[in-house]
Structure formats: structure tokens, C-alpha cells
Amino acid sequence: MTSRRDVLRAMTVGTAALSASGLVRAQTVDQPAQSTTIDMPPPITNDERSVRIQSAQRLMQAQGMAAIVLEAGTSMRYFSDLAWRQSSRLTALVIPAEGEPVVITPAFEESKLREIMVMDMEVRTWNEHESPFALIGGVIEDRGVNGTIGLERTVRFFVADGLKSDVPGREVVSADSVVAALRQIKTNREIDLMKAANAITMAAYRDIYPKIETGMTGADIGALMREATVAYGVPPVFTLALVGEASAYPHGSKKVHTVSEGQIILMDCGCDVHGYKSDISRTWVHGEASEDQRRVWQTARRGQDIVMEMAQIGRPIGDIDLAVRRYYDSEGWGPGYKLPGLSHRTGHGIGMDVHEDQFVVQSNRTPLEAGMCFSNEPGIYLPGKFGVRTEDCVYMTEDGPELFTSHAPNIDDPMG
Question: What is the structure's pLDDT at 10?
């Protein structure tokens, strides 16, 4: 029987072969107005996406799944790079366990869809009085495959309901064991794209750090970061800047705070390189840091070190979160999620989505594997005062964890 590990190994080998054959070549984008030149890898190719589809089909066959159904979103792009958007009318990618994928779409959308299709795929259309779910059933029947219908996790309920009604005799199940299982293990090519995204975000941080002045708001600082990121030729995804008390709340406050002497500035920013994301947080003090600010900052940085020490192949991911919380408890924070302390999980998976599998939370008993990528961000928050979060993302190798970006050296030198 084909195992998930066998499929992932074959997918990695296939992608490596594409790179070795010369189909994948890095390009250098030089932005002379900026402080850093970033090597920009090329985007994922159709050949690589074909390897992904074949890997999904092997997993479906091993699990008795006839097909998987995906709506618009990052999973659809993962397999096809079809940049569609959800609407009240169903457009879906159907990947059968055998044979070629099919795109289902409203008839009046076909011409537009074909304009943006990246891969050569069959398109089947439905008119307003017809059932798109019956079309999905038709694809499965035409491919001659037996088994369940797997739905990617973001597929909406009306799709599941319609399939149960219009494709009787086939159980509708979760496709996580196929889609999430593949997406959570990054190939070297995917990791290279994420390295570029992280390098750009870090370079943009260094560009704007000396430009932050007294009187600026978080919105002002965020605008600087957006401009700096765009200057490197990629879109910013988020540019959160929290000033003073707003830093005490992980995602900020509606109150407007301005930069002044002795105040914490916490930034959380990321960009997109050919569909792959970065996520980096830095915290520092405008002016001279107090002893209390230094103590909290150093504790949070030690929390990051514990993450790296615990992140070993085969260890349950949740043990990382537990170890950080034990340390924080011993330092007088918490306990658990209580404030002042760490009110959120220690990290999250990252890739095409900023937040994806696997999540670094104590209930997650999934063993760490090479190719998994996750954030390392065990912040500490003091409501009404300030918060500290230094965040870097990690990718797992057979030898252990590696950082996409170096940790911040200290509160006085947050960018390194």
C-alpha cells in the first residue's frame, strides 16, 4: 500500500529533478534604491503542480477516495494556480483519483476563466437552472473511480449538501488527509520562495527602522513598511505596527497611540513571493528601554530559544508549546493562557497561507517532520502596559530546525 511518506518522498524527488534539469532557475532582482539585493526564485511551474496532482491521486487511491473537490483559494492555487474567487455560484476544481482534473464553472464565466487558467484542464459548465454538483458526479463516473468524495476544508456547506443530494451513493468526507497532508510538507523549492519572502520583509524592516520618529502613529509606521516592501517588487500582506499600550494586545487596539520616548513599538509584517508568505515580528523601545521592558523582552526571546531546542523530528508539536509555558510559569507569568503572560499559541504553520497546518499548540500531537514550517512567536503581554513579541519562522530539516531569519539580538538592536 502506498503510504503518505512514500508519496511525499516521491513529490520531493520529482521537484528536485525539475530543478536539476534546468526548468527552475533563480533570478536576481536588484533594487538599487534599497539596502539589500534579494535573490528571487522563479514561481512554481506547471510541471511541479502536475507532481502535486499525481501525489494527491496516490493518496486518494490509498484511502479509497474517488475525488477531491476544491473551491477558490490557496489550495486551488496549490494544484492549478487558478486565481479564481468565491461567489454564490460554484466554481470548483475536481481532482479524480485517476485521470485528468476538471474545472466546473458557470457557463457565462467560462471565457473569463479560460483567460486566467495557467494549466491546460478540461472545463465543464452549468447553466443557472442546472446542478454543478451533478457535473462533479459526472466527472467521477467518467473517470471510472470508486470511493468517497473528499472536500478541501474551506469548501462551503452548500457544496457538501448539494453533493449529498445530487450524487447519491457516495459519502462526502474531509480531504485533509490528502490536501493538508501534502501542503504541510514543503519542498525545497517552496522553502526557497519562503526564504526570499522572509529576506524581503527583514530588509524592509531594516530600511524603515531608522525612519521611525516621535509623533508617528502605528498607521504611519505601517505605511512606511508597505512602501518599503513594494520597493522590493512584492506585495505586502500585512504591516501591523502597535505603539505603546496597543502592543499589550496581540492584534492591537482601536485606540490611536503615538510614538514617544520610552514606548514599546511592536511590528508584525509579512509579504508574498509567488504565493508564499513571510511572517516576522520585532519589538523595541523608542529611546531608552526600562529594566522592566528589558526583562520581558529577554524572557520572550528565551521562549524562542526553547522552541528551537524542542523542535526535533518525531517530537509531538504540542510539546513545544507546553515547554514554553512551563518556562513562563516558572518566571511568574500565566499560568497557562492567563495574563500577564502568553495568551495565544506559540506558533502556527505557514506557507501559501499565513496561518495553516501545523499549529504549535499543546493539543497538537502530530509528530514533527522534515519540510514542516511554522512560526516561533511566544509573546508576553501585560494588559494596560505593553507587550513583547519577537517572531521568526522555522523550517524543519532531517537534522532539526532552521530559521528563515536570524533571531533579534537584543531590545537595543532588534533588526540585527
Answer: 54
Residue 37: pLDDT band by 50, 70, 90 thresholds? confident
Helix (H) or strand (E) holding 201: helix 188-208
Any idea which residue has 487558467 for its cell? 117
What is d(CA 201, CA 278) in angstroms, rounded to the nearest whole number? 7
Which three three-digit cell numbers place residue 238? Answer: 500585512
Does residue 22 surpass a pLDDT of 50? no
Query: 229 and 32 in contact (C-beta within 8 Å)?
Result: no
The strand pair at 92-96 and 65-70 is best described as antiparallel
Burial class (CB within 10 angstroms; exposed 0-12, middle 13-18, buried 19+) of 337: exposed
* Residue ranges with strand state E in 245-377: 263-273, 276-277, 280-286, 347-349, 356-360, 373-376
What is the pTM (predicted TM-score) of this model? 0.92
3-state secondary structure 133-172: HHHHHHHHHHHCCCCEEEECCCCCHHHHHHHHHHCCCCCE
pLDDT tens per residue across span 239-281: 999 999 999 999 999 999 999 999 999 999 999 999 999 999 9
* DSSP label at residue 361: S
Find residue 347's DSSP bridge partners.
360
Per DSSP, the three-state class of 216 is: coil
Amino acid, res. 246: A
* Cα dihedral: 228, 232, 236, 242 (round 10): -30
d(C-alpha 266, C-alpha 250), whole Å: 9
Classify the C-alpha dihedral 327-331-332-334 as positive or negative.
Answer: negative
Question: Any idea which of 1-10, 71-80, 228-237 has the lowest mean pLDDT?
Answer: 1-10
C-alpha cell at 386: 505593553
Give kind and range of the element (H or E) at residue 321: helix 318-330
